[in-house]
Each structure stands twice: as C-alpha cells, then as structure tokens.
C-alpha cells in the first residue's frame, strides 16, 4: 500500500515550533519536535519501557522525557537515562527517522535510513524565493486514502461539477486531456481556448471577454502534485507562455498517508504577483480553502463507498488516463521495493 523509501511531509515547519507534534505516518506513530538549535527530530512515538507515547512527555533540551517513568531519549532514539538507576538496559531505544526541513515543510523518510537521499525531495525552490509569496494552507486531515488526493488533482474536469461557482464552467469538459510520462511520474495538461473565465478568476481580474485557460498538473511519486492553472485574455499568447495580465494560479500538494484509509494533505499557493497584497493573501486562504474542503467531501464519500464494497463494478473514462498512469507507476515502485526487501531477508 505504501512506498516507504520516499520523502513525505510530516508537518509545517511552524507546527513543531509550538512543541511536540504527534502524527501517524504510514501507520506508524511518530513524535516530532525541534531542538533548541533549530534542527527537527522525529522519533517513534512510544517509550520502550511501557509504550506510553513520548508525545505525552516533555522536551528537555535536545531530548525527550517520557511522561510515565521519566526515561530520557536523545535525538538518535537512544535511551540515555532511567531515573533511579545508573545503567540503561540493553535495547533501550526507539526508532529515529531521517528528517529534513525544506520548503517550509518537515520531510520524513519512513523507509531504510541508508537510502534517505535529500535530492529526492521535489525541487520546489519558489517556496523559499524572495520574489515569490507563499500562502500556506492548513493541514487537511482526510478520511480517505492518499491516492484519492492525486486522482483529484490530476482530474480537473471535476471543477465543472464540484466547484461550479468558483473554478468550474462548462468549457472545461469540451477539451481533452493530454497525458505525458515524466521523470518519476505523469503530466496532465489541458488547454481551453476562447472560453468564459471561471467565477473566481473573474473576481480577481475582471476580464472584459473570453479567456485562454490552461490546466497543467505534474504528479510525481509517491504523492507530490505541482498544479499550474490559470487564464489570460483570449488570443494574447497564454498557450505560448505569455501570461501577463491574467491569473496564474499555482498550488503545491503532498498527500501523506496516515493509514490505508486516512491521510494528511499539505498544500501551499506560491505566487509571483501582488506580493504585498494582503487582500489577495486572505482571498487565497479563504476561497481556495473552500475549494479544497469541497474536494475533501468528495474524497471522504468515495472512501466510505470503498469501505462498504472494496471492489465494486466500475468503469474508466478518458479523463482518468493521467491518474491511472500514475497509479500504475506507484504500484510498480511499491512492488519493486517489496521484492527488494524480500531479497534482503532471504540473504540476511
């Protein structure tokens, strides 16, 4: 179900500034915190003595102290002190996970620590670039499988029906999607020429007439989505890259599995215009949170249906091509990872 040798977002950077954060990731309980010198730490959220979650304890300098009997763990997960005795019993440790702080997120590696390669984190450099403004979304706790998030973002035909009064209109479904294989994933693209602007983009730009609209989403394994959508006045060169004067909208999303049936979605909106416009910041937070919450309602309803009947009779349609392609690539990667793990066990 999960690709373990991959980076997932565990938290926003400012979440761990406020203290211990308990989060289940890939069905494993994890506690996150920040050392006084700034570095993030992620440990198994379980004391090796009597299994109380360490997130119920407290941070003491660089270390964590269990809230039950006071055992102290360092950032490597090693128990370094047991109150009332001078020695720490053999095996006194918990798992420590590789973590990296990048692009305002805390990234965690849930697989083999020896394989944790930070170059595998997507290069979303504009999240930290001074010429870009980033509006953060809240952490969405979704009662649905994480692959539903990627499905949703790769299939923007649903805007016509789910988001009719914000991002949708009838023009979208009249134009086909194109599916391209890219390194580590799939690109979905759709160009919508000479059509009415969607309500939310009209609100931002007050277009006088029709627009040329683009929808380009790159989904890479295991669950990263770079969403580039927008529109400009029809005939002004949007499809050739000239997008001045319109609405370029960007969203970056990572779906982090909590369990097989639940996940967290972390998303942000980087933009390169109106950097000091607080009204646009508020509008992005309010309007697009509404859009994302509408998607959550759909995904959670899908999951409830799957829970009732995991394998119902179903069909695929043309707009499913990008999500089916990325699901195949993910399944292949998981199968390869499991085969490698079996080989290691056989030769151990």
Provide an overview of this structure.
It contains five helices and 18 strands. Strands 11, 12, 13, 14, 15, 16, 17 and 18 form an eight-stranded antiparallel beta sheet that branches. Strand 15 and strand 16 form a beta hairpin. Helix 1 runs antiparallel to helix 5. It is globular, with a radius of gyration of 23 Å.
Round the Cα radius of gyration to an integer and report it: 23 Å
Structural class: alpha+beta
Report the principal-axis shape.
globular
Q: How helical, in percent, are the residues?
A: 10-25%
Q: What's the total helix number?
A: 5
Distance between the termini: 24 Å
Write the layout of secondary structure elements.
Blueprint: E1 7-12, E2 21-25, E3 28-34, E4 40-44, E5 58-60, E6 63-65, E7 72-73, E8 79-81, E9 99-102, E10 105-109, E11 133-136, E12 140-142, H1 147-154, H2 159-162, E13 178-182, E14 185-195, H3 199-205, E15 211-220, E16 224-233, E17 247-257, E18 263-271, H4 278-308, H5 321-347
Antiparallel strand pairs: 1-10, 2-3, 3-4, 5-6, 6-7, 7-8, 9-10, 11-18, 12-18, 13-14, 14-15, 15-16, 16-17, 17-18
Features:
alpha+beta; 18 strands; globular; single chain; eight-stranded antiparallel beta sheet; 348 residues; four-stranded antiparallel beta sheet
What is this structure, in a nutshell?
By secondary structure, the protein is an alpha+beta fold. Helix content is 22%, strand content 30%.
């Amino acid at each position: 179900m999960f690709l373990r040798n991959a980076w997932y977002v565990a938290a926003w950077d400012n979440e761990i500034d406020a203290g211990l954060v308990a989060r289940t990731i890939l069905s494993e309980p994890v506690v996150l915190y920040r050392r006084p010198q700034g570095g993030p730490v992620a440990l198994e959220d379980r004391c090796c003595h009597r299994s109380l979650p360490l997130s119920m304890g407290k941070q003491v300098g660089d270390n964590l102290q269990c809230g039950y009997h006071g055992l102290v763990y360092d950032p490597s997960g090693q128990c370094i002190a047991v109150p009332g005795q001078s020695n720490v019993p053999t095996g006194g440790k918990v798992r420590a996970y590789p973590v990296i702080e990048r692009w305002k997120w805390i990234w965690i590696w849930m697989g083999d620590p020896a394989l944790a390669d930070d170059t595998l984190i997507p290069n979303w450099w504009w999240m930290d670039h001074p010429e870009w403004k980033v509006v953060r979304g809240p952490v969405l706790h979704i009662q649905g499988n994480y692959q539903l998030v990627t499905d949703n973002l790769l299939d923007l035909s649903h805007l016509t029906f789910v988001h009719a009064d914000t991002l949708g209109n009838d023009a979208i479904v009249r134009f086909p999607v194109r599916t391209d294989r890219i390194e580590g994933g799939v690109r979905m693209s759709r160009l919508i020429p000479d059509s009415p602007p969607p309500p939310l983009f009209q609100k931002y730009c007050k277009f006088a007439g029709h627009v040329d609209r683009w929808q380009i989403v790159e989904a890479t394994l295991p669950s990263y989505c770079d969403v580039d959508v927008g529109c400009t006045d029809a005939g002004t060169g949007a499809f050739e890259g000239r997008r001045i004067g319109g609405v370029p909208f960007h969203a970056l999303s990572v779906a982090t599995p909590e369990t097989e049936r639940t996940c967290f979605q972390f998303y942000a909106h980087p933009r390169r215009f109106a950097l000091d416009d607080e009204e646009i910041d508020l509008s992005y937070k309010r309007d697009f949170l509404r859009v994302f919450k509408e998607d959550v309602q759909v995904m959670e309803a899908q999951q409830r249906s799957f829970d009732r009947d995991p394998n119902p009779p179903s069909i695929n349609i043309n707009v499913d091509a990008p999500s089916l392609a990325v699901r195949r690539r993910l399944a292949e990667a998981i199968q390869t990872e499991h085969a490698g793990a079996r080989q290691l066990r056989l030769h151990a």
